[in-house]
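Shipment paperwork, digital attachment
Item: protein structure file
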Amino acid sequence: MRWRVVMTSAVTLLAVVTVVFALPRAMPGDPLAALQDRSTATPISPEASAHLRSYYRLDRPLGSQYGHYLSRLARGDLGWSISRNVPVRTLVAAHLPWTLLLLGTSMAVAAATSFLAGVAAAWRRGRPLDRGLLATMTALRALPPYALAAFLLVVLAVLLPVFPLAGARTPFAAYGSPLGAVGDVGRHLVLPAAALGLSLLSTRFLLVRNTMVSSLGQDYMVLGRAKGLPPRLLKYRHGGRNALLPFVASLGVEAGFGVGFSILVESVFAYPGMGTLILRAVETRDYPVLEGAFLALALTVLSVNAAAELVMRRLDPRVAGR
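Attachment content:
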């Protein structure tokens, strides 16, 4: 069975690398067009453009470019930014930690909230709490992430200036202690994490609620009530535990949605994560930056999926035997 897992992982990784290579080249435009624009301050000459095209192998067929891309990845080389003239690895290292902080915080808060709310709604199904949570989650599911982010920005950063308007840190701020720096980063994180977390909340809430409702009538729940077990024990240890396995399995899928949503949320709050890096690279058709950014995000999603798989194997031994 292990060789099948290895083969599946290898095929998945190759597919990811291929898609990462193809996506930037599917966009219209040329990565050197912006550098040749005469309206810019320092347009490059046709000779310099030809040299850059040869350096980045943009003058070769796609097959040759793909082979060169694979050889660079095998050496751990993500390439050199066309528009910024810096290594892509440097740009990814500067932006990826912010996205991981945003994604990790929002997913952790959304996971805890959706699980507890789903269990509580199922336990009181048909009652006002259940109906109120269902209505709220349905409304959140209908809102696009960028609309939710814009709403929070206008209300809590413009009309009621409780949180910072944009960025991840206060520019030129002098912190008296490391705790002050952490607090400043945390204040800037609240609104983006809230927007992203609320966008990820509804699907897992419905999953937990529906799984919990289906387990309430099972024999072991009836037996637990007959034994006089406390409601809290029945709710979380018996009913909630039954909903835990599909809940953990959904985390890998939610990570994929979270990465996509984070790009939209970061653009609204000007958060210096991978979303901001990708949007700037799209404007300049910077192929190496787009390849490096997409690859880093894809590996993040694959890592979350692998971690969820390991947790599932610990929760249910039947999964380990597959």
